[in-house]
Structures are given as C-alpha cells and as structure tokens.
Amino acid sequence: METVTYNGLTFQPYITHETIQRRIAEIGKEIGREYAGKCPLILCVLTGAFPFASDLFRSIGIDAEIAFIRLKSYEGTSTTGNVKQVLGLTENIEGRHVIVVEDIVDTGHTICNLLKDLNAKNPASIKVATLLFKPQSEQCGVVPDYVGFEIPTKFIIGFGLDLDGLARNLRDIYVICDKANDANA
C-alpha cells in the first residue's frame, strides 16, 4: 500500500482490509453468541459506518434486522462537537435489543447524544459496536461494547471514513502523515 493524498493532505497505510475483515468476523461471532434467539436491530450510523455495518451484519450468523440513521459532527478533519441528525430513526425500538454500529468513537459526543435519544424510546437493551475507538480523545465516558481497533488521536480515512466526503471507498484505513516526520523523510 502506498500513501494517498486528499485535499492536499497525505495519508499513509494504517490497517489493511484483511486485518479489518478478520476483526469484523470476530466481533460478528461474539454478537451472534450474545444475541442468539433475540433478533437484534442493527442500527447503522450513516454514512461512515456503512461498510463496517454491512460486513458485520453478514457475519453475525443469526436473524437480525438493520436500520439506518444519519448524524453529522465533523467538518474537515475536526469534530465540531455539534451533532446534527440528518436522517432520523423511523423504526419502533421499544422492547428491542439495539446494537448501534459506528465507524469511529472519537470524543464520544455523537454516540452520547444518540444513546440519550435512543434510551428515551425504551429499548430492551442498547450496545455500541465501533470499528475504531480513540480512548484518549473520549470526553463523555462512553466505552463501546464491541471495539474493532483502539487507535491514537490522529485523523484517519478509508473503509467508510472520509475527508469532506472523499476516501470512504478505500478498502484499507489510512492515517494522516505526521508533518514532523515528513520533514525528516
């Protein structure tokens, strides 16, 4: 894998597609064991979580339903802290087991706001699955139940994660190049 450039920023390979797929399969098996006979609702947070949710949904090996919600909290490479609901939940989740699927939990503001809204709808349970988790950035006390990879506080793209709408279709995950290291290269 080689570096990629988007909007003048250079990114280097970080997590390969094969590694991502292995970890998704592991999480899927765990969810399948925990929710056997419960038909959970997989709630995909669009747009970034779509590739993860799609692969995870197929890997759980049990009956489940999938629904989508769209939130926005990023502009460029920074989170705004202001969470906007762009596409709301239309399914009734009262009494349902819900697994929220996120691409990344960074500061935790997005997932915190979503969990508050979902809990008001009286689900039987709510758990969070995230492909990526930045524990050093988290500010709301959110610890996802299923974590693909813990990562440092650097900006990443690929496998659903974007920079101003670009790079979501990359099969691998890339991390922004450290400018200090680039200057020494």
UniProtKB/TrEMBL annotation:
Subcellular location: Cytoplasm
EC code: 2.4.2.8
CDD domains linked to this entry: PRTases_typeI (cd06223)
SUPFAM superfamilies membership: PRTase-like (SSF53271)
GO molecular function, one term: hypoxanthine phosphoribosyltransferase activity
One Pfam entry name: Pribosyltran
Co-factor(s): Mg(2+)
Biological or metabolic pathway of the protein: Purine metabolism; IMP biosynthesis via salvage pathway; IMP from hypoxanthine: step 1/1
Magnesium is among the record's keywords: yes
EC category: transferase
GO cellular component: cytosol
Catalytic activity: IMP + diphosphate = hypoxanthine + 5-phospho-alpha-D-ribose 1-diphosphate; GMP + diphosphate = guanine + 5-phospho-alpha-D-ribose 1-diphosphate
Domain Phosphoribosyltransferase: 18-162
Alphabetical UniProt keywords: Cytoplasm, Glycosyltransferase, Magnesium, Metal-binding, Nucleotide-binding, Purine salvage, Transferase
Major subcellular site: cytoplasm
Gene3D superfamilies: 3.40.50.2020
InterPro entries noted in UniProt: HGPRT, Hxn_phspho_trans, PRTase-like, PRTase_dom
Biological process terms in GO annotation: GMP salvage; guanine salvage; hypoxanthine metabolic process; IMP salvage; purine ribonucleoside salvage
Record keyword Electron transport present: no
Family recorded in the similarity comment: Belongs to the purine/pyrimidine phosphoribosyltransferase family.
Annotated protein name in UniProt: Hypoxanthine phosphoribosyltransferase
Species in which this protein is naturally found: Muribaculum intestinale
